[in-house]
Amino acid sequence: MLTLAVLLLCAASSVSASGGAAGPRLNNNQLYKFSYTTEVLVDRAKGSKEGSAGYRISSDVNVNLVWRDPSSKDNQLIQLAISNVRIDHATHRSEKKNVLHGSTAESVLGKTKLAALTKPFLLHLKNGKAKAFYSYWAEPATIKNLKRGLASLLQVQLNTGKVIENDVSGRCTVEYKAVKGQVTRTKILETCKTAETGFTTHSQVLGVSRKSSSVTTFTLEDGFIHSAVAEETHSLAVNARRSAAATVVSRQTFTFVGTEAGPLEAAGKDVAGVVKSIDAKLAAVGIVAEKVKSQCKGCPSLFEHWQTQQKQLEPASLSKATAPRSFLALLQSIRKASKGEILTVLKSASKTSLPQVVDAVTSSQTDASLDAMLEFLNFTDAKGLVLQERFLYACGFASHPNERMLQVLLDISKGKIGSTDIKESVVIIMGALVHKLCQKGGCNLPTVVQVKKLILDGPGSTQVESEVQMYLLALKNSLLPEAIPIFTKYAESEVGAYSTIALTALQRYNVNLMTDAVKQTVNRVYHQNRRVYEKNVRAAAADVILSSNPSYMEVKNLLLSIGHLPHEMNKYMLSKIQDILHFQMPARSRFYRYILLPFIVYYIFGSSSAFSGFMAQSADVTSTYSLDILYSGSGIMRRSNMNIYGASKGAMLHGLQVAIEAQGLESLIAATPDEGEGDLESFAGMSALLFDVQLRPVTFFKGYSDLMSKMFSMTGDPINVVKGLILLTDHSEVIQLQSGLKASAEFQAGLAIDISGGMEISLWYRESKTSVNNRGALVLTGNVTVDMDFMRAGVEVSFEMEASLDFITTVQFSNYPFLVCMQMDKTTFPFSEYLTKYESVPSGKSAVSHKSRKQLVPGSEFPLHQENSNMCKKVFDSSW
């Protein structure tokens, strides 16, 4: 107790020695004169030789005490008056590129705004903290924000500690460090809470990261601020390509010049009374910055913009980078447009460009765009399938969907729908929206709860096979933990399609959710403990086992099964294990190798295979691919599965999955079906998963009669699975700078994509060929702009590329073992990067600088295993 008393006495004496001041104090009857400069610069992250875009506002500032609480010296009302305003470029400019050459503050700001900026304002400081900021409601928001930026700079505490403060940036956590007449204030910007919130892409791999810092250093003399130097930096970069980055830097410098005699302290009992006595129009307008509505003078209307972009959105241009670039530009215009303006564009678009307009309108994700689409589309009309599905897919790929979008789809599902395919797509896409909304913490939103109940109850509410599959695919998209028991049940279904969907869905879940009960079920399916399953079902079960952190016994039992499986499945499983050893799980390779060696002591013939490899590796992102192909014992392809993944900073994105399945085709070549597959209906189809969203499967043919009619009409031309424009990256935010200026950041990436697949069978040559063709053009643009009405400065970083990827499998089944050749080819494609910086003033003067870098990325054939290479030589060296 005595020790505590001594410590308190020491602390009290320390405070007394420092004068007991909690914050800076002004003296009565004294005018403090300061010079003040605030500047903002924008550039690419690494900077550039020609200098950053931006501007500097310089002025003189007079500060004086208006009133002090007689009972507390740290309760002060001070007045600040800005004068002698100058506006310049932040970095040196030649006369040709100097948009401010020959201008004055009045010509740039305008007489009214300059008068408002130089009108005195008041700040109530209590213990060094801003309690109230007094200015005039009638002043433009930009002017009030600049004043708030200066007022916030005077907020400082003289002792070390962490506090929560309100200033122009919002309500933020701030850390102070005080050492001998100097105080350092570090604002933890990620804690700042403001009214202006943006949005970003749900996928971390496709998203944008921001690193920010804000440090102010104060020196104090005679109890008041002698100087304050603040620097704030915000760097934004695309996660998948961090060189596509931009930075905004804001600096403030407040320097003491001298003092002179000033006005006497006003009399009054409280702050409110004193303020009213000075000027009744002064009001406490809040220290936190207010929103500024940017006005675009002379900007084209949406319809005018559409007229300049429509040629680039015709189908013939979709493989070129001009298509996604026009898509992104149109999307920005749509986000500012009304429902009526959007409908005008939809109604005026040509039949061929209309699907691309639907992509852009839906991807804009505004209330007006959603209302326009609902009025424009007629879901009772089966003839509108293409536009309806493009709308639904754009909803599924939405970067930041809200509850209303989900409610719209729910309402559509309850109404009359002319096409069965569209009904299925509506439900499947609702599952994807549930997943995205749950990721953002919206799992308990009323509409999300309704849809969750609908799709969770769905599989058990119908006996129609297509409807059960529809609900299972919706649940696969939702990734709801509550769906795991449903998938576990359907994994053991007698219907192969149900089992396949359930097992592939389980593979998408976090391994921590794979309980012992789930693992036991999957192992029963693979080992056929209760019934015989199709090969592709067992292969899917094996994938779940191997990707769910299997135990020693699980792997041992799986390996013991090899040699006792149907012939081609033996080869597939051996190839799968070898692929894991060499590529997929290097950290566990010793574990697998240890188990593998005692059991695999023989060579298994066959054509089925599994292989994984790298598509691209960089410091930012790693892209991998996998190709799995399983054949029946008669040589007909049973399942072909191509996957492309992207990984960045620990996050994973399933970019693409194209699976082609075929069954019941043995009768074509008078072959004997494999065990458990004798009664399967003839069928071939394709399923696609794109950017973590499962799409509605496409059927090539179903049933023997459909098979025979298409066999004779088959041209080998691919069937389209996905075609359109997708908004991959969508990041928008307003960065409130401590100076009172605002920076807006917009990063968008658009992808024009065309995925198609085909299957061709020649009974004459006893040869089959399956193909998956991927065509795409990608454009990313990142804009950081500081627009204060009186001057605009910004930087745009962008890149674009056009590429194609083909996966072709050729099978010759005239002899056994039949010959299989897999090819995965990437064509040579162009890659371009651009940097644009711009500055402009209301007079119309502007300066723009451009830089670009272009290169050709060489094409290649992705390497598969050596056995495949040997077979390809035999296939293509064949004389017939």
From TrEMBL:
This is Microsomal triglyceride transfer protein. Residues 26-656 form the Vitellogenin domain. One of its GO terms (cellular component) is Golgi apparatus. SMART domains: LPD_N. Residues 1-17 form the signal peptide. It comes from Sander lucioperca (Pike-perch). It comes from the Eukaryota. One of its GO terms (molecular function) is phospholipid transporter activity.
